Amino acid sequence: MRDLLPPLFLERMAALLGGPESAEYRAFAASYDRPAVTGLRANTLKASAAELAARLPFALAAVPWSAEGFIVQDADAASAGRPGKHPYHAAGLYYLQEPSALAPVELLDPRPGERVLDLAAAPGGKATHIAARLQGEGLLVANEIHGRRAWDLAENLERCGVRNAAVTNETPERLAERFGAWFDAVLVDAPCSGEGMLRKSAAARQEWTPELAAGCAVRQANILAAAARLVRPGGRLVYATCTFAPEEDERAVARFLAARPDFDLPEPPRRPGFAPGRPDWLPADERDARLAHAVRLWPHHVAGEGHFAARLMRRADAEQEAGPRPARSERLPKAVEAAYRAFVAETLAGPPADAVMLAGAYLYAVLPGLPDLAGLRFLHPGWWLGTARKERFEPSHALALGLRAQQARRVADFPADGPETARYLRGETLASTGEDGWTLVTVDGYPLGWGKRVAGRLKSHYPRGLRPVK
Fold first, then answer.
1. Domain identity same for 116 and 259
2. Do 161 and 288 lie in a common domain?
3. CB-neighbour burial class of residue 205 (10 A; exposed 0-12, middle 13-18, buried 19+)
4. Given 160, 192, 216, 242, which residue is catalytic?
5. Quick check: is 242 catalytic?
6. Alpha carbon of residue 76 to chain centroid
7. Could you give the percent of the chain with pLDDT greater than 70?
């Protein structure tokens, strides 16, 4: 693998790490001769880390800097992609995530009841991590500026059963204009030169040039400037990249601190594998001792590809701004409300949400405290419950994945290793006894999606786009 890396990248890393013959650089370069690790994070919205580890059929080792993180030790399973093909993955019990990518949310430390913004959230690893930490309390705004990637983000939030998130598709500047300094915590997982992706991605290796980092640094500075406007006094902002370049890491933070004296970079909690930032890599006139409080994860020191993160705290005595205007609630059309209430009465043990709203033909749970999104581009303003279709209500996959089995009146439960589960995921119709109607299909008690039972046959309503390729 080392032979495939860009030679100029290795030359720069040798210069940073003490020269080509230094022990540090030699260990760094040698790490690329080892295979990549496969990591996963338990989705604690659905199962505890201990419960997941006990149920999965492949060996796991704990990630030392994350209570929810694991490394898949079964090399055959990892190489065959088994963790991504297991029914528990389809049920959202875990998210496949590179281990060092867990560090930024550890530093952000989102807490139940808080308002949190993930500013560049696709494909959703860190957003679903934030949601799990919120435990359904508070509000997550998950934003992605690129439309196609925003749909990937929405799909992953849906699979993980996230019920308190809005998915927006806006520029950071537009969000800052609308929301102002309103969030308790903001994550900027910045677009970067992706040096932490060089082992896994041929495209990243082909695209890497010495000039790429400089171009990314300009964009990162603009994103950080907008992100700062979104943090309330006393709130926190985590800036993260998956690259090693000082221009995108320590220098980006140094210039931010110089421009925003209302922010500080205090010492964060140190976890195993958290190495300090390197202010000594910057020109003398840009060095700031506080940059050592940033966190670097190195591929030769941890089981992971590497990451950089800095937790920036806004002073509590900074000037408080007026918050955004609240969303307005409107009554549902009578036909839509009647169809929805009929579905709930027939299918569920009770309403899945306290209040609902209509956006186009889509019915959503109203998120408490969500500001007015009118005029902003968004995919989902909350938990998508289903679609109003003439005189009927059709439940969404997101509703199924956000429920618990006990919330449904009709359940068809199949074992993870049973043929029925595989057939359901392929969209096949199954024999199933019981009352006719919408039925929640579960795997070992965890929701997988909807089926519709008619006369002893259960038709799979698992989304076509998610079905495995035959």
1. yes
2. yes
3. middle
4. 242
5. yes
6. 26
7. 99
